[in-house]
């Protein structure tokens, strides 16, 4: 009885849409648009592993490769982790605009220590999310309006579904010039970038 399900799952995996390695409309990116290497990160502001990557890998990686023009870095949001936090954080970043987008993402990642201090709870998370929103100029009404905007939510869910269909099922997933990186450490990422030049 299980065979058709397993076969269907295998077929779905084989015909899944390919990972898009280049920048597309709606992406948020940093660095030289003409850089020889494109690094795509699929991540969620509610994912502890993503927060660790953001804290331990991104600062040095950005300084060494993005800021020097060697890499075009693309961030693609997914909804892993606590859904309310993932959605609220990404929507807030979108509403903040392109100039503040990555600052909001960074603040959300760093906020995880606080909003997960008492477990995965929306109740404990909201005051911290609201405090982050206020630090970027949002009052409570503007924050609420942003995170529940129907068009924004529809677009965010559609993008998440598209990434899942392309075979991205965990975060962070790092793709270097179209090739998924198994080890998202700074050493492995640096080696992959150097090899792709």
Notes on the structure:
This protein has 197 residues and is of the alpha+beta class. It has a single domain (18-196), classed as Glutaredoxin, CATH 3.40.30. 56% of the residues lie in helices and 12% in strands. It has helices spanning 3-14, 48-56, 58-66, 83-96, 98-110, 112-115, 122-135, 140-147, 150-165, 186-196; strands at 28-30, 37-43, 71-77, 173-176, 179-181. Strands 1-3-2-4-5 form a five-stranded mixed beta sheet, with helices on both faces. α3 (58-66) runs parallel beside α10 (186-196) and α4 runs antiparallel to α5. It is globular, with a radius of gyration of 17 Å. It starts with a helix and ends with a helix.
Give the key terms:
Glutaredoxin, globular, 197 residues, 10 helices, alpha+beta
SS summary, helix count: 10
Number of E strands: 5
CATH fold naming? Glutaredoxin
Proper CATH architecture: 3-Layer(aba) Sandwich
Question: Could you say which structural class the secondary elements and strand pairing correspond to?
Answer: alpha+beta
Strand order of the largest sheet: 1-3-2-4-5
- The helix content, as a percent range, equals 55-70%
What percent strand?
5-15%
What's the helix-strand series?
A: HEEHHEHHHHHHEEH
Rg calc: 17 Å
Q: So, the CATH homologous superfamily?
A: Glutaredoxin
Total discrete domains: 1
CA-based shape? globular
Q: CATH class, anyone?
A: Alpha Beta
Largest sheet: 5 strands, mixed
In round numbers, the mean pLDDT is 88
**Straight-line N-to-C gap:** 49 Å
The residue ranges in which pLDDT falls below 50 over 5 or more consecutive positions are 1-17
């Amino acid at each position: 009885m299980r065979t058709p399900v397993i076969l269907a799952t295998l077929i779905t995996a084989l015909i899944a849409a390919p990972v898009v390695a280049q920048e597309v409309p709606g992406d948020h990116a940093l660095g030289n648009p003409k850089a020889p290497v494109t690094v795509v990160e699929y991540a969620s502001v509610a994912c502890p592993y993503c927060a660790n990557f953001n804290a331990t890998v991104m600062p040095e990686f950005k300084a060494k490769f993005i800021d020097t023009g060697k890499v075009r870095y693309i961030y693609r949001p997914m909804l892993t982790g606590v859904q309310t936090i993932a959605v609220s954080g990404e929507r807030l970043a979108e509403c903040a605009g392109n100039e503040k987008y990555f600052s909001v993402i960074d603040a959300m990642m760093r906020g995880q220590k606080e909003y997960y201090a008492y477990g995965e709870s929306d109740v404990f998370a909201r005051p911290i999310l609201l405090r982050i929103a206020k630090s970027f100029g949002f009052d409570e009404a503007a924050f609420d309006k942003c995170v529940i905007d129907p068009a924004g939510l529809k677009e965010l869910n559609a993008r998440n579904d598209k990434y899942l269909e392309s075979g991205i099922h965990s975060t962070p997933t790092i793709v270097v010039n179209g090739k998924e990186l198994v080890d998202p450490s700074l050493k492995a990422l640096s080696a992959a970038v150097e090899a792709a030049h």
